Amino acid sequence: MEDLKIAVSEACANAVIAHEEAGSQDAVSVSYTDDGGRVVIEVGDRGQVDDDAAAQDEADSMGISSRLVMSMALVESLVDECEFLPREGGGTLTRLVISH
Q1: Torsion of CA 55, 61, 63, 64, to 10 degrees
Q2: Are 93 and 44 in contact (CB under 8 A)?
Q3: 45 has which bridge partners?
Q4: Cβ atoms 62, 18 nearer than 8 A
Q5: What percentage of the chain carries pLDDT values higher than 70?
Q6: Bridge partners, residue 99, by sequence
Q7: In whole angstroms, what is the distance from residue 95 CA to residue 78 CA?
Q8: Which range has the worst mean pLDDT, 7-11, 59-63, 82-86?
Q9: Do 98 and 3 touch, CB atoms closer than 8 A?
Q10: Short-list 19, 30, 5, 22, CA closest to 95
Q11: Phi, psi at residue 69, to the nearest 5°?
Q12: 94 and 84 in contact (C-beta within 8 Å)?
């Protein structure tokens, strides 16, 4: 459960940063379901990719923020499943799954 707490905290921090970079005033969404064998937590943001903000941060060879790459690697190492999905209307949905 401790790993899940860290993963959710990291996903929420990424969502807040995405909102700040995009100038979004929308709330970060967090939802969860427990289907008996798995806990699924979804963290959603309405951030947009901002080329100027990405240019200010070091980027990898594909132009992705190094901070984000490291954060994604951390989150993926803490849960059983992790997906980063585009949200309808803009933003990202981070889906975290842990089996219990």
Answers
A1: -100
A2: yes
A3: none
A4: no
A5: 83
A6: 38
A7: 13
A8: 59-63
A9: yes
A10: 30
A11: -60, -45
A12: yes
Q: Which residue has the tokens 């240019």?
A: 55
Whole-number Cα distances in Å, 34 to 1, 28, 78, 79: 13, 20, 18, 15
pTM above 0.85, yes or no: no
Domain range list for the chain? 2-99
User: In angstroms, what CA-CA distances link 10 with 16, 35, 73, 84?
Assistant: 10, 23, 11, 13
For 2-99, CATH number?
A: 3.30.565.10
Alpha-carbon distance 3 to 37, whole Å? Answer: 17
